[in-house]
Amino acid sequence: MTTVIDVESVSKQFKIHHERHQSLKERLLHPRSGTTELFDALSDVNFKVSDGETVGILGRNGSGKSTLLKCICGVLQPTSGEIRLRGSLAALLELGAGFQHELSGRDNVYLYGAMLGFSRKMIDGIFDDVVAFSELDHFIDTQVKFYSSGMYVRLAFAVAVNVNPDILVVDEVLAVGDERFQAKCIDRIRSFQQEGRSILLVTHNADTVRAICDRAIVLNDGQMIADGTVQESLRIFREYLLGTSVEHDHVGTQANVTIDAVTTPTGSFEVRNGAGMHFDVDISSETGFSGNFMMEVFTRSGLLVSRSDAQGSPVNLTPGHNRVGVDLAQLPLLDGVYDVNVGIVAHQGNTVIAWREKAASIQVIYDGREGGIVELGPTVRQQ
Amino acid sequence: MDDDTSAGVERRRLEDAPVRVVSARASLPTRLRNLASRRELLTSLITSDIRIKYKGSALGLFWSMLSPALTLATYYMVFSLFLKNGIPNFVIYLFCGLIVWNMFQTAVSSATGVIVDRAGLVKKVSFPREILALANVGASVIYFVIQLCVLGIFLLIVGHEPAWGFIWILPISFAALYLFTASVAIVMSAVTVYLRDMRHLMDVLLQLWFWLTPVVYSYEHSLAASLHKYHLATLYFMNPITLIVLTFQRIFYVNTSVLSTLDHTTVIKTLPTWPMSTYFYMNLGLLGIMIVLFLVAVTIFGRLEGNFESEL
User: Fold this and answer.
1) pTM value?
2) CB–CB contacts below 8 A, A to B
3) Is the distance from CB of A116 to CB of A163 less than 8 angstroms?
């Protein structure tokens, strides 16, 4: 394994201007006015990425995710520390940032390729793939200013993934394009992984991380608070979201809710396919609180099987110990182990009050021959 | 393609791949190496800049010649026909100086605001930012070459022979001009990020600068005597463009002193009567200074670059 990204005690400070004097006159008239404040966007971040690894960076808005990516791409220089990179890197910080509106799609492919650091000859070689991937055959000689935003993004993404970089750095861009194009992007990212390339991905979306990352890093206020398995990092990420949302949303004292345990009456989490299942969730709350119960079921490989309606199961918690019973009639799942996350969310919005990752693991036993996750049991008749 | 082997090749290649370092301050050699490794981007930017500029215009690059031609015609009319400065073949004299000045002026005035104008790019895509300014310089080099060709054709038509013996100094002089233009462009593009007035100030400064350069007048004829009297000649030659303009005039205009066209008796000294070696050593010296200046400019840019993000 070769280390392709080595981030060593990287810190970045920004000057925040409270009063901007950018003209000469203003500078001369107010030599010292306008307070500047130093803001630590990143403090002492350390991690390494090996080749073939896909690492997700999680964090709330303003936690320093994008600053970190920009430092890695060399758009920003860290205030201290250094980042060592090995191999070619293509970054998608903002799709189409390097595009010139007046030029045609074709010219922009070459220009953007050059900006990413690839030679003209190389772009010649992949040009057809880029066009095919972006599905813009009819518009490639049209000026980019006439493109729709979807076309714009498709072209930019197509260039970045087709130059076959050793490291692909992606910032929240998977949220664009229609569903079909998104699926295509995810497919391409998967084939990237199979080819042993490294991917660094910033996202808010826990599902994306679960679906494609091997590892995840959590940033909070510029500090790295977790670097570990996806499950573990997501747990910490949720806890931090929770911890800070209490402050911000003034849920206040009523939010001291913890999920103590998930149990079944028999003590076994084994269940036959098609049979029902019941489990109890023990919740303790310091004060009375009414919110919604929520649960998620994942496969072991991190695929979301089901997430319950966040508004659909209201619960009224009383101070002290509470027990919530959950009934699953006729589990249609196929053979395998499924992880269950449970939590309490506030009535309005999606504020998480309490959350427990992997609160239980359900083992499903299935005798039939259907494959996959869900039993559909098709009835086939010849007509 | 066989997946296993390609992955194997990939891995070996990665281990050998050079390590790039992003840190607080890149050293000057690293900056220069980064710049040199992105030549391809520079060419792309130059061609796209030129293409965008003349996109949809019927005459295209021809416009890049029309404006200098008009300036040439105006100055010729004013100084040769109305004010009668007495310099014979004034068009050629003017042409030599103007191509040098045009290159400097177009590059600097377009590069001054380039980083501010392309903030979106600067904040999102990683590349040595100096390249944006250098692309503007590159575009003006192309206009310069076109104008130089026009000058050549013009000389051929009127049957005016350049000083062939001096022509080998031209590359040295041009290299100095390029480095000086690039240095000013690089520094100005960075300073403008902090002081947005620089753009307007530069417009004014460039006008003043033009008149401090012997393009439309003759240094020997109009200024030399009085400057020597007040010991200001050295100061005058502190303007690097002056020596370059004089060299170009010496090469293409040739005549260092001529009989006045007015009364055919007084001798007008149009250019310094230095021997070839003086031109050579002065240009070589200038080139040396310009190389140092360029390195200083890249260093200054590196210092200023660190805070672009919070200013743009």
Assistant:
1) 0.76
2) 133
3) yes
